[in-house]
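Sample pair:
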Amino acid sequence: MANFLAQFQTIKNSCDHIVIAVEDVSDLWPTVKEKFEQQLPLKKACLNNKTRNPVFVNNLSAEFILTTDTRLRSRSPHEQYLFWFREPYATLVIVTCEDLDEFKTILKPRLRLIVQNDDKEWFIVFVSKAHPSNDSATKMAKKVYAKIEVDFNTKKRERCCKYDLHAPEANFWEDLESKITECVRNSLDRRVQFYEDEIRKLSEQRFMPVWNFCNFFILKESLAFMFEMTHLYEDALREYDELELCYLETVNMGGKQREFGGMDECDDQAALLNPGKKPLTQMVQDDSFREFEFRQYLFAYQSKLLSKLNRPFEVASRGYSFIISFSKTLTRHENTLPFCIREVWIVTACIELIDATVSQYNSEVASDIEREFYRILGDLYSLCRVKFMRLAYLIGYGTFMDRSPCNSASLSMLPWPKPNVWPSIPLDASSKIILQATSRVKHFGIQRKPLPLEPSILLREANRRRASLSAGNMAEILDGRPNFFEGSDSDAYQKMSPVNKVQANSMSRTNSSPGMESSIDRPMRLAEIFVASEHALQRTISNPNLWKSLSSMEEFEKKYLDLTKGAADNYHRSFWKRHGVALDGEIAAVCFRRENYDLAAKSYEKVCALYAGEGWQDLLAEVLPDLAQCQKILNDQAGYLSSCVRLLSLDKSLFSTKERQAFQSELDKLAHSEMENPVSLDVSSLITFSGVPGPALELCDGDPGTLSITVWSGFPDEITLDSLKITLMATNNADDGDKAVRCSTATVLNPGRNTVTVDLPPQKPGSYVLGVLTGQIGRLRFRSHSYSKGAPAESDDFMSYEKPTRPILKVFKPRPLVDLAAAVSSALLLNETQWVGIVVQPINYSLKGALLQIDTGPGLKIEHSHGIEMETHINSLQSSASIVNGDTAENDSPLVVKKEFEQLSLRDGKIEFPDWASSVNSTLWVPVCAIDDKLARGSSSASPPKQSIVDGMRTVAMKLDFGVSQNQKFDRTIAVHFTDPFLVSTRVADKCSDGTLLLQVVLHSQVKATLIINDAWLDLQDGFIHTSQSDGRPTSGFFPLVVSPASRAGILFSISLGKSEDETEARQPDSILNFKYAISGDRTTGAHPPVGVASAGQDGTTQDLIFKSAVVLQRPVLDPCLAVGFLPLPSGGLRVGQLVTINWRVERLKDFDDVNISQQLDELLYEVNANAENWMVAGRKRGHVSLSIKQGSRIVISILCVPLVAGYVRPPQLVLPNVDEANIGCNPPGPHLVCVLPPPLSSSFCIPA
């Protein structure tokens, strides 16, 4: 069967659709051929896959071929059996007949003979040639077709259809397509079953010596090709997958050593998408195939099927996996293959796969599939790039490659080629010149050991694989240079002096020249290795485009840039940002070499952002200087400053002190240069800050303060900050915004920890934490958002980026900081100089330097002739403690306060507090005098004295300025009560038989002090005279009369009615009581001797005070003229809402002494006073009634009222406004309260039982 490989491949190349055989019984095919072929391909065919599940196939390709065609009749039975997949899948029998007898005798036996083969899937198409206008012919055609249906249709299957040549039925073509599909489906099922049986038989024999993989391959691929022809691509793909697995399982079975392949011309070019690149007959070896060609052949068919399924993503995914696995296979056979064919094959395979999948890719897929597709493309580009760089390095382009972390990581882990014998120097090596590029010195003079691009030393690896020589004496190879092993091969070559380079090149050329000793007798030098590798690669690479990319440095760089950009772009599309950005750095290096600094800077910025975000500081230290150099060349001052700050922010171990000082020098120089616009930068990683250790600064509302913070500087040297500003953030209210605090002077930061002090203006109440540190260095505006959590005491270098939760400042809510109150609540003396005490009480706040301004209200003035005194305030609790503990315990008791006293003066209307009064309660004594020009008036006992507290009230307004800078204000107005020493009331105690009246004067003490009355006299008003026994004074034995606080004393005066004999004496309407008294009291309790007057009780030094009070003397209420009596209420009582009549009886007891008054009182004015809330008066409240002037005359005054509330209420009162109360008596007296009952229940709300 293996001999049919060539024929099998020819059949496959020529047959790509199914065949439908046409049996033209009545020679009608030329007539209907055009119409029938127009129905191809089949629009919708339902076929069964390998698992017998229905699959709908669109546009199934097919071809009608007559059974008499040579393509069908020339096949031998064995070929038909072997290549059954190309045989017709259906047989279309076309017949026509116009006579029943002809059908029975001729057509029917012939049809029986045609359809008797059970292997064929057939159906009959009856063609009616009858014209629609010919009824008889039409009827006959119908009869014949009906007879054909009876003879050839079965219950399970209809095998006949009718085609009207002149007017086809509308559903004929659908019927035709369904019958063709049914035949194809049945044929396919039968053939699939046949191939499966045959394949199963061969599979069971695969471990036997007679096993032949070629036979298995033909059957398996025939089945796969049949699925492909019928558009069952999933089944075909599955067959190729199984074929690959079976091949890998049996390729080296039995220990046979087979040829691997890959030695033919153009084998270095991958054939992953071209299955026809090499015929099967060139792959076959004995009973199997060479692995190199056959595995690519299988994958090419797999990718072809995937492409037909429109799955470019899966083509790329499978292709990448195949390249990786096949690369390992090439590695195992590398010593027998051409030089570097593995790397060349991988490069061509990746490029071919990329080009094919990108052109077939349809973007209308799911987002995750799209990202994964671009990721695989990025992997293919990256793999191709790395292999291409390895090839370029072998021919001497390694010195032009950027020794970046990305390139180093890729190439340093990639092994060198391992040929059996390393290529020798060609004979024309004298014409070869290896150009070496000098390494670029990094900006800022940074010295770094270059990263390796080699897994090991190429010089040793190449010489070890020489045919007749090992590595030999390395010192001889390197001309005695001991530093060779410290770097890479190219680095070692660069370190050679120009003389040595010339000698090396000249030696290689001389020794390889004809007639000289062969270079194989000594180790090859590095330049010779490059020349030999280039010569060998030229023989290996058959792709002219690839070789062109390696022919010159410019072409290499162009290809290298295309591959790197492709990888980076696809990684970015797949959201593999790390890979994409890392490759952007390689693009930036090429752009830098080409002096395209703008593009290089943009790419370097992406790389730096990635490394910084991932925290890869070692990698960042490699790239950041290059970015800074680009920015400096482009005059990007802001970017250059930012790069300098970032370089300084990196770990100190990454750069030397000298290098870090160079960074700072560049930053300082540029910041103080003439930049057009200020530059703002974030230095959070370079300058951090925190509060000083210890509790937070606590301030009261409105107080300024001084805030100290700790600032850590990451600069290697000291640096001067032209301005510094701290932002405070409120933790309790975000709406308040941030508060900025500015440092008033320039700040110098030393490396490490620094303490900075700023003046803090008053802040709103709340808790504050540090927010942002901002400032300016020249034209550089910096800010820092990083926080330090307080370094240990022994560490000056501690830096942390953890945001603190401990507040740095606490401003308390507005609270009472001080209280000003009156020291004495009792009354002081009017019209006398008195001490007003003001208690000053600081509430956990210092009053140092406080200023008090005092303003007195109307009727009160400060006596400036006397000084102001201030003393420690001793309350009652402290006084009790001092009494209990005694003098010996004065210093031990916590309640005892040291007594302080000081005299103060009023300056500019303000009093300055002494220092000792800043934290203790103190009392300020201010001498004042309350002025009242009105004469005090007494009252009679008939009308009790009505004292108004407002009359003697005076106000003292105080304004206290205190705090650190007098910023706190406290205003308070206190009321001070002033009063007369006595409240005088009089009454006539008795009327003697001789008309003498005894006038009793009662003195009520109104102060908390002892009053001593030394003398008293009465100046009578007109109408009253003193008796002959008195001169207006009481009995002298009464004096001195001592009146205790809140007590009363009485004095009797003897007077009588009459007129004064002295006509020259001025008449006065009131009587004047005169008192000469002294006072004994303490200013801490109330009234006291006036300021400057000694207290009573000191003999010889007492100064009496004078008090006068006016009293009105009236006729004694001993003989009333009118009697008003309250008549009894109804016996039924009072109820709410019921009318009641209240009666008063007015009786004249005698005539008035005054004739005028008597004549006027024949009509009395009355008035009824009632509480409107308790009573509703129905009659007149005020009016006149007639009362005869005769003694004993009576009258009753009535009024109608309605009680409004229940309970005990005061009844209405009758008043006679025009009659003095001294002339009215009450008989019988009226009740103070009366009882009012609730209203009776209403029967309308009662429910009968």
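The mean pLDDT is 81.
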